[in-house]
User: Which sequence fits this backbone?
């Protein structure tokens, strides 16, 4: 098996990255690259496709995976994707059933257990992105935008709490949000937060879409409605337990196609990468991505089996 590994040396811990690179050094069929920007990532991905590698491994966090997958378009069938969990959040790895230790990705590579998972195409009037894990708008999108790479490097997992503290004064900012699900009538919601999810976790392990499946051809849409502090405290308490989807302050739906427009425009975090747009359309691409999964992977969440 020929593997091209694309390392993000700015993700998570550099010492972890170096340790994994040392372990991979000398392995037959393994080539390692250390791109320093998105253009170099695209060159690495083009190399993997052109030279017929079996596996393209993203060594980093969710943002690294996002960059690699978007560079891979439109050649998703050309190579299998693997993830080496070296980021701060590693939320996609949780949905892929992988242990989160730095060396866990090697076991996934060796096992070679392949599944086809969905992607979400996010389209604005100017651009198109591909989302592997989650798109989060409103409060969550602002939090991601506030987490500069230097803050995440310095604080690690605590960066998410620090980022939340930094924008708490804006917590109650609401957005007049119009949401269209497939061909249904448009919903108008006074929203604080909108999540369009493929995976189940975001922001370092929070179960923001606990019933989501990577293989059902549907996006899970979760909207936290504007409310008073007691309502929001109740939502937060249930989020910790993973069951906030039943809250009266939460709108939960599933759809193949989702259009979100808001006033004022929301910051959306696409797999942790911030973008601001007045309107985005999300379309599920069923089974578009070939991925190596971990030993605990479940195509359907345990609660629904």
Assistant:
């Amino acid at each position: 098996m020929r593997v091209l590994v694309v390392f993000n040396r700015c993700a998570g811990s550099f010492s972890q990255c170096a340790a994994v690179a040392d372990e991979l050094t000398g392995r037959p069929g393994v080539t390692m690259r250390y791109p320093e920007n998105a253009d170099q990532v695209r060159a690495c991905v083009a190399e993997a496709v052109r030279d017929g590698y079996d596996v393209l491994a993203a060594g980093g966090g969710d943002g690294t995976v996002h960059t690699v997958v978007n560079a891979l378009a439109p050649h998703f069938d050309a190579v299998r994707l693997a993830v080496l969990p070296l980021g701060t959040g590693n939320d996609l790895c949780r949905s892929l059933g992988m242990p989160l230790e730095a060396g866990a990705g090697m076991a996934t590579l060796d096992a070679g257990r392949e599944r086809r998972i969905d992607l979400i195409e996010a389209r604005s009037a100017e651009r198109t992105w591909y989302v592997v894990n989650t798109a989060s708008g409103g409060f969550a999108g602002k939090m991601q935008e506030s987490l500069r790479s230097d803050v995440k490097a310095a604080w690690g997992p605590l960066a998410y709490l620090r980022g939340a503290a930094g924008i708490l004064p804006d917590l109650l900012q609401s957005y007049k949000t119009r949401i269209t699900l497939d061909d249904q009538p448009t919903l108008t919601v006074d929203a604080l937060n909108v999540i369009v999810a493929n995976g189940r976790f975001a922001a370092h392990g929070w179960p923001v879409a606990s019933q989501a499946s990577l293989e059902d051809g549907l996006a899970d849409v979760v909207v936290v409605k504007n409310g008073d502090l007691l309502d929001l405290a109740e939502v937060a308490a249930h989020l910790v337990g993973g069951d906030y989807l039943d809250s009266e302050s939460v709108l939960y739906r599933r759809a193949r196609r989702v259009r979100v427009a808001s006033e004022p425009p929301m910051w959306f975090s696409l797999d942790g990468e911030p973008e601001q747009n007045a309107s985005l359309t999300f379309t599920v691409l069923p089974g578009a991505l070939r991925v190596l999964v971990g030993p605990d992977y479940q195509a359907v969440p345990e609660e629904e089996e």
Notes: The first strand starts at residue 3 and ends at 7. Residues 141-170 have pLDDT under 50 and may be disordered. The domain at 123-286 is CATH 2.60.200.40 (Tumour Suppressor Smad4).
